[in-house]
Design goal:
single chain; globular; mainly alpha; 281 residues; two-stranded antiparallel ribbon
């Protein structure tokens, strides 16, 4: 007779530490990706715009593929074109037109439209922060650095300390220790970047810490949301473009939430100042 106790749900076991098998691939891909992206952010203009548009197109392709629409399907092709048109309109300065194009993607169906909105909002936010805030490159650097270091800190702390799982039903590998480690790394990064950027205003250090923490929380929310989507769709990674990370959505899922949050905050910062100065007049 089967042991009925096997059917009783038990508390999830703590995650063991020490799984470093993908560290080498992550380091090598970051060694290529980080300098290239930093150069594009620094140069700005059409170079930066092209990078964002290409990233939007790549993420749209991965989103469509998770829902069964590859490049051989008409809807899969339309997803790429739609994302490109949204980004190009914004690069050309037609922000209202970009939002209309993004909204019109509803004709693709609710699932694909949700992807166009999530990816479009993140892409438009990154373009807005670079082109319309001050200092543009520094603002994007703050945002991307806090998101990246939150991810790296979570990876390192989770594997060093292990411990209870953060959201076992969504992403069994994520731990509370990793979440706290990522938050601490983003806070420190925010403090340093906000204080060292040219034209830093009074209170830059503590404001950098607060908003670095907010960026980390938003990034972790985006990470969990993408993990939930992948679990629902039955896929491990959104793609294979980035060794050690998976696809573009796997690597930049945190920006899907953090970038729009930063852009909304920037609207409340006086005189186009960096978004962590929101509320100062």
């Amino acid at each position: 007779m089967p042991d009925q106790s096997e059917n009783i749900s038990r508390p999830s076991a703590p995650v063991p530490s020490g799984n470093w098998k993908d560290l080498r691939a992550r380091v090598l891909s970051a060694a290529v990706l980080v300098p290239l992206a930093a150069l594009c952010v620094w140069v700005g203009g059409l170079v930066y715009g092209a990078m964002i548009v290409l990233a939007m197109v790549g993420m749209a392709a991965e989103w469509a593929r998770m829902f069964g629409f590859g490049l051989d399907a008409r809807r899969g092709q339309l997803c790429l074109v739609w994302a490109a048109c949204t980004g190009v309109a914004a690069v050309a300065g037609h922000w209202g037109g970009a939002l209309l194009v993004m909204a019109a993607a509803l004709v693709l169906g609710p699932a694909l439209w949700a992807g166009q909105v999530a990816i479009g909002c993140a892409g438009l936010s990154l373009l807005w922060l670079r082109y319309m805030s001050e200092p543009g490159a520094g603002v994007v650097l703050f945002l991307v650095a806090c998101v990246a270091l939150s991810d790296t800190g979570a990876y390192m702390a989770g594997r060093l300390f292990g411990g209870p799982k953060l959201a076992p039903r969504i992403s069994p590998a994520k731990t509370w220790s990793g979440s706290v480690g990522g938050l601490c790394c983003a806070v420190v990064a925010g403090m340093l970047i906000a204080a060292l950027l040219p034209g830093a205003q009074p209170g830059a250090v503590w404001r950098g810490a607060v908003f670095g923490g907010l960026v980390a929380i938003a990034a972790q929310m985006g990470d969990l949301a993408e993990s939930a989507l992948k679990r629902k769709r039955g896929v491990k990674d959104s793609g294979t473009l980035l060794p050690g990370h998976g696809g573009l959505l796997d690597r930049f899922d945190g920006l899907l939430v953090a970038a729009p949050m930063a852009a909304l905050l920037s609207l409340g910062a006086a005189g186009g100042a960096a978004f962590w100065y929101v509320g100062l007049h």
